[in-house]
Amino acid sequence: MSKIEIAGRLRSAREMAGLSQGQAAKRLGMHRPTISEIEAGRRNVKSDELTKFADLYRVEIVWIAEGKVSEEKIDQSILAAARELSSMKDEDIETLINTIKMIKSSGGADGKN
């Protein structure tokens, strides 16, 4: 559980939540530079802050701290994605699949871009 790994997961969770550092800071009652310092791994995250981040970003604390996801959470994510896909047009699904392939081939899917 390194500070840098936690920082990266916090940044990823914020981005997936669609929030800027400023928006997250405002909702958490922090200053934007504090969020920046945490995401850069230069500042430790207190346990009460960890809970607030998890609530705001709608992720499990264990994922932020250890990178682990419960199977129940994975199943829920897959079902949510399937529901979204089922309402899309075939050509939009094809575009999405091509975009995913492009991201994976550029190394973006595993954080190596």
Percent of residues in β-strands: under 5%
Number of helices: 7
Please give the number of β-strands. 0
Enumerate the spans where pLDDT stays under 50 for 5 or more consecutive residues. Answer: 109-113
Helix-strand sequence: HHHHHHH
Q: From the helix content, strand content and strand pairing, which structural class follows?
A: mainly alpha
Coarse morphology: elongated
Walk me through what this model shows:
This protein is mainly alpha-helical. It has seven helices and no strands. Helix 2 packs across helix 3. Mean pLDDT is 85; it is low at 109-113.
What is the compact description of this entry?
This protein is an all-alpha fold and 113 residues long. Helices cover 70% and strands 0% of the residues.
Mind sketching the topology for me?
Layout: H1 3-16, H2 21-28, H3 32-39, H4 47-57, H5 61-66, H6 71-86, H7 90-105
Features:
disordered C terminus, mainly alpha, elongated
